[in-house]
Amino acid sequence: xAKLNGTWRxxxxxxxxxxxxxxxxxxxxxxxxxGLGQAVKxxxxxxxxxxVIDAAAGTASRTAFxxxxxxxxxxxxxxxxxxxxxxxxxxxxxxxxIQGDSKAVLHEKGDGFExxxxxxxxxxxxxxxxxxxxxxxxxxxxxx
Length: 144
Description:
By secondary structure, the protein is α+β, with helices and mostly antiparallel strands. Helices cover about 15% and strands about 55% of the residues. The protein is built from two helices and ten strands. The protein has a ten-stranded antiparallel beta sheet with strand order 4-3-2-1-10-9-8-7-6-5. About 20% of the residues are buried. The mean pLDDT is about 90.
């Protein structure tokens, strides 16, 4: 668990648009993501995520920062399906499971989609592999 905790700077992505199309993400949010991707090209610190797994409380938190301003903060109980609000504003049922010291798996079910995201740490690199309806996206982060 401890390896997942920390602040992670976005480095790269592959097929994020395909994944969000499969997840039926609204077009306005996909445009926002494209703009964010362009911002990161000129300022690598434009997008960061903070992950905190609290074993004592049995919770997992994910906070997104854009230009150091908190934009999204989600905390869920580990292993418990919870209603969550996605970054694009839709609601879904989500649950997260922790698999050892360096891996977590998030499952989401919403109106017309089921998706998963595997968070895995190797050294100072976090790889997030998101899958929905046969489309996968890989996002890479480096520890700050």
